[in-house]
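In this supplementary section we document a worked example of the pipeline. Step one takes a protein sequence of length 291 as its only input; no multiple sequence alignment statistics are reported here. Step two produces a three-dimensional model, which step three serialises into structure tokens for compact storage. The input and output of this example are shown verbatim.
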Amino acid sequence: MMTQRRIPQVPARVRAAGYLRRGLFWLAVIAVALYTLLPFAYAISISFRTNAQVLVSARYLPEELNIINYQNLLRDPNFMRTLGNSALVSSITVLLALVVGSFAAYAMGRVQFRGRMGVLYVVLAMTMFPQISILSGLFGIVTDLQVYGSPIALILTYPIFTLPFTVWVLTSFFQGLPAEIEQAALVDGATPFQTFRLILLPLTAPALVTTGLLAFISAWNEYLFALTFTLVNRSAQTVPVAIANFSGYGYEIPVADRVAGAVIVAVPLLVLVLIFQRRIIEGLTAGAVKG
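The serialised model returned by step three reads:
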């Protein structure tokens, strides 16, 4: 006669401890979400108010949804030109960072040569210097090349802070790829460049998307180089500089106008994150589990 197997009962103390840990976890998640989202939500609320309403009262919700700030900005050809400048400079910067960074990361991660780790640490050390420390040297180079006051000055200088990060991150991904894949391609008659372009590079697509998006965000939000190298030419300025120097539309302190401009600037970044969110998650979690 078969006897039924008893399922052991979980003690009430263990269940209570589990519920407590789960409750504390979700409480921490909610606290982090509120801490990160509330400032942006308050900025959106300010953008739907007039400058007079912002200065008179500090309400968290607007009295009415007023889109006059967005209408003024989107109808302003100068503001739209700065958006175009930011998009152009950031896109070319990302393209240069990914092309040059992928070649450099392949060499650092797959090719064995003396001093490889030393070069990699030098690349990492480049990210430790603040932008202000190299600004005078870059200013001299930009002036000598006669590109001061043009978007080309930003395209030449932005890889200074995007390229080292790209090389360092992509190197770890190339190191994590199985060596058997590369060896099999070489046995089949593929050249090293074909192996890199047709096999290894597609496998690092999540890392390319992640690093490319982070480089785009850095270039899109960069202010110091943009202010210094486009100071004499307003038509070459990017949108962070335009918002900082914004004088408003007929009001002494353009608080709501600037906040509306900041919200508009954040929209393309949010759209890119939503489009590539799956690739970003794959890139951030790749290599966490090996098997």
